[in-house]
Design goal:
437 residues, alpha/beta, Rossmann fold, Transcription Regulator spoIIAA, 4 domains, 6-stranded parallel β-sheet, 5-stranded mixed barrel, globular, binds 5'-deoxyadenosine, binds iron/sulfur cluster
């Protein structure tokens, strides 16, 4: 019999990329091959994101496309995995467009769910677990360059940020065993991966048998000294001096911290149930820069949260100026039903005003990114080659430790090499470099 094949599209965060790799592994062991051609797939799935309404709208649009395949070829099954499966549950089955609905903790049951759905009855498993970490599963890596690997170190989230759907879709926080993480890092190194990103919703609350995140980070860095180590995401109140010391003392840990701030106003931060003030955030930034003057800091921000005034929005702008972020992911508030904010606070900043505030933040960050890049002109960095640049095949591209994209002329290196470059010029998005011989 012909081997069945599965096609998966991944949306949302890096955690979902890592989860899709776990799903390929589970399905691979059950005899499903991976295909990147939707027209050849027996099972078509989307690993989905619920963080904002537009993320979900995109998936509904994709479901229409999936259903063209489902209707035109007999036996094709459509599955929704991940956060949207967890949030919408029956609504997905009721649409008549989906055969399998599986939440983030039910991937081990996918082979069973697919077989049962093939018998003609739609299947759903959205039970969240307190233990599941897929600890011993070796993911099927999907980085097309074979250079960068994700390792999930924990799942779920115990924070209660009032705007956020993640605790509902990914359940409570649990840490994966340290030994399985270290073993996976060794496997990545043996397979030729040159960069590992340790992933968790809140990496600083990693805790396993008395070992904290700094212990884990140091251990991974020491075990695979030729591999570059990154991590995400850190919460401003939780990132510890010990983590900063570990970063500063291991040459293979990249000096980049993603530190979501969300707002520059104390009243809004409190309403968001963030557990820090503007001043505490600024103090953390200062502590990072004192220990690692070359450390890049990026952030996430939400414009137009419930009841945010123009003055409060301007405090976000002033905080951005004060910190001078190297990069930012910027969003306007999208109400998610079931969250504390949706239950307690009216979503009362008009869409037009949210968009205006967001555009103002984006314009400011564009100028801050350019300033940050200009400060790098003349500096030298070790860059990990990802492959040819998109704009010009004669150029290579890759990231420096600070996570900035670098581009340079080069015909002698390939993906996975570490090269020395000097920054000669820049745009707002890219450092333009020359190879240092
Ligand atoms: N609306 C807009 N942005 C959100 N984020 C999380 N929830 C929402 C929401 N309801 C943003 C936060 C978070 C990032 C992953 O997504 O900035 O850090
Ligand atoms: Fe989206 Fe958050 Fe789920 Fe990641 S954890 S897929 S960002 S909702």
């Amino acid at each position: 019999m012909k081997m069945k094949s599965v096609y998966i599209e991944t949306y949302g965060c890096q955690m979902n990329v890592a989860d899709t790799e776990v799903v390929f592994s589970i399905l691979g062991a059950a005899g499903y091959g991976r295909t990147e051609d939707i027209t050849k797939a027996d099972v078509i799935m989307a690993n989905t994101c619920s963080i904002r309404d537009n993320a979900e709208q995109r998936i509904w649009g994709r479901l229409e496309q999936f259903n063209i395949q489902r209707k035109s070829r007999k036996g094709v099954l459509v599955g929704i995995l991940g956060c949207m499966a967890e949030r919408l549950k029956d609504a997905l089955l009721d649409s008549g467009k989906v055969d399998i609905v599986a939440g983030p903790d039910s991937y081990r049951r996918l082979p069973e769910l697919i077989s049962a759905a093939a018998e003609g009855t739609p299947q759903m498993d959205v039970i969240l677990s307190r233990e599941e970490t897929y600890a011993e599963i070796s993911p099927v890596r999907t980085d097309k360059n074979g250079v960068s690997a994700f390792i999930s170190i924990m799942r779920g989230c115990n924070n209660v940020c009032s705007y956020c759907v993640v605790p509902f879709t990914r359940g409570s926080e649990r840490s994966r065993s340290l030994s399985t993480i270290v073993r996976e890092a060794c496997e990545c190194a043996a397979q030729g991966y040159k960069e590992i990103t340790l992933l968790g919703q809140n990496v600083d609350s990693y805790s396993f048998e008395g070992q904290d995140f700094a212990d884990l980070l140091g251990k991974v860095a020491e075990t695979v000294p030729s591999v570059r180590i990154r991590f995400s995401t850190s919460n401003p109140q939780d990132i510890s001096g010990k983590v900063l010391d570990t970063m500063a003392s291991h040459p293979n840990i990249c000096h980049h911290i993603h530190l979501p701030v969300q707002s520059g106003s104390d009243r809004i931060l409190e309403k968001m149930r963030r557990r820090y003030t503007r001043q505490a955030y600024l103090d953390k930034v200062r502590a990072i820069r004192e220990k690692m003057p070359d450390c890049a800091i990026s952030t996430d921000v939400i414009a137009g949260f419930c009841s945010e005034t123009v003055e409060e929005h301007e405090m976000t702008l002033s905080l951005f100026r004060e910190v001078g972020f190297d990069a930012a992911y910027m969003f306007y508030y999208s109400e998610r039903s079931g969250t504390l904010a949706a239950r307690k606070y009216p979503d009362d900043v008009p869409l037009e005003e949210k968009t205006r505030r967001l555009e103002e933040i984006i314009a400011l960050q564009n100028s801050l990114s350019l300033e940050s890049n200009r400060r790098d002109v003349g500096r030298r960095f070790t860059v990990l080659v990802e492959g040819p640049s998109k704009r010009d095949e004669a150029d290579l591209c890759g990231r420096n430790p600070q996570n900035k994209m670098c581009v340079w002329k080069d015909s002698s290196h390939k993906a996975g090499d570490f090269v020395e470059v000097e920054v000669t010029d820049c745009t707002q998005a890219t450092l333009l470099c020359r190879l240092v011989e």
